[in-house]
Amino acid sequence: MSVTREQTGAEPGAKPLRADAQRNYDKLVEAAREAFREHGAEASLDDIAKRAGVGPGTLYRHFPTRDDLIDAVMRDWAAQIEADSDAVVGSGLDARPALTDWFGKFVANVGIYRGAAAKVMAAMDDESSPIYRKCQVLVGANEKVIGHIAEMGALRDGVDSREVMRLVSGVASVADQAGMDIAEAGPMLDIVIQGILRDPAAS
Length: 203
Known about the structure:
mainly alpha, 2 domains, 0% strand
């Protein structure tokens, strides 16, 4: 499917790409998606250009930095984050299973490409990062779920959703680096859950 500048988060009013440039853009995004799955977020940009059948200069004209390319590859990521948080809030689950579900989805989404967890953590407070806006979608989605748990009366006093996000992002980064799956990361996530719930009986 063709990707437009609007879909990739370019500034409103940006001049549309010519048809040939749009094809190159789309090929580069698809090639990057494959390379990141295979080799992680630090995959060779030259290799990505070769996969797309274009020269390095074409890649850098479309994506001046690696983070610009990651931003384009993650274009569907924000929508999935929103859908996952809405699903958890609307699930009717008690506090503990709701958090278990959300944190599992959180880790899976943040670790969608090897090395992506560290990129997301680094960009969370960096407004100059191309993926900053997508990180803010994650911030908002986490606030929604943590706020839902608070409304249930199950959250300890003084728990800050952003700090919870940092903790879970840290778990995601460790799981990513160690090659853990969600089940293996579960015990670490459970420690976070125990720490933020008012009382185990609340779940």
